[in-house]
Design brief:
Distance between the termini of chain A: 17 Å
Oligomer: homotrimer
Helix content of chain A: 10-25%
Strand order of the largest sheet of chain A: 2-3-1-6
Number of strands of chain A: 7
InterPro entries (chains A, B, C): CdAMP_rec, N-reg_PII-like_a/b, N-reg_PII/ATP_PRibTrfase_C
CATH topology of chain A: Alpha-Beta Plaits
Bound molecules: nickel (II) ion
Shape of chain A: elongated
Largest interface: A-B, 20 and 26 residues
CATH architecture of chain A: 2-Layer Sandwich
Structural class of chain A: alpha+beta
Number of helices of chain A: 2
CATH class of chain A: Alpha Beta
Mean pLDDT of chain A: 83
Number of domains of chain A: 1
Largest sheet of chain A: 4 strands, antiparallel
Chain lengths: 109, 109, 109
């Protein structure tokens, strides 16, 4: 048994939570923030049997890879610029950070 | 020293928190949700000396065992049924999932 | 690689979060409460390379040591007292509890 701590960007956490349900994987969700300038994220705790760890890591990878997304910039408030138009920018979204932890005992009551 | 991560159903978390105080056990409480269809739960983090681990696990077991409870069903919104009466149903409440983790260092400042 | 779980009193958590950013240390912040009568605290999760663990622990120690602070008492509601004046009291603020956990795998997607 391992404890997987998965910190997942909010863009991906809903889809990942759905995948956990579809695949019968019990996950506990903690509210979390941060990691530099990146906005909200979700921390999942998962108790996983050793022989299933690789499959769970693969499932997370498929649903949470960092990728570039084109978004409209926020309007400029710099009054020296001639226009306040927004423009498309590429930002990095998604991604996950994972820790697989050894455990001494796993119990359910 | 061990780190116990205890995920406890909300029906039991208040009573368990009281027991921790009564027994001089320091616990940190994280807000958490999920584990399939079950409603809110609470994740406790506890730093426990090796020789006290069994006592703490026993305390959690006594206060958090899964049990059946009779509740009234929600009213039906199925208009093909002749009545919208609620009726008693047995649901499973309570319970805890525990991970006992080895630690390399424990420090307090 | 280690996973550091740092439970930090709220008086210190904002300054510590700033220090993490200044020093290029990625931290995930969980909302947490408790540890007896003490008010809110914050739990940080940090993935730290083995050779940097001591520096991170030192940084936390510098920013989170328990200390005495003089505060005004809340006004008394004990009507047997002749006055409802507040008076200065020494209270303990700040501090951190740290767990350094071994990890089997660390992954980023
Ligand atoms: Ni699917
Ligand atoms: Ni009691
Ligand atoms: Ni500084």
């Amino acid at each position: 048994m391992k404890l997987i701590v998965a910190i997942v960007q909010n863009q991906d956490s809903k889809r990942l939570a759905d995948e956990f349900v579809e695949n019968g994987i019990r996950a506990t969700k903690l509210s979390s923030t941060g990691g530099f300038l990146r906005s909200g994220n979700t921390t999942f705790l998962l108790g996983v049997e050793d022989r299933k760890v690789d499959d769970v890591l693969e499932l997370i990878k498929e649903n949470c890879s960092t990728r570039s997304q084109t978004m409209m910039s926020p309007p400029s408030y710099d009054f020296t610029l001639e226009s306040d138009l927004t423009y498309p920018v590429d930002v990095e979204v998604g991604g996950a950070t994972l820790f697989v932890l050894p455990i001494d005992q796993f119990l359910q009551f």
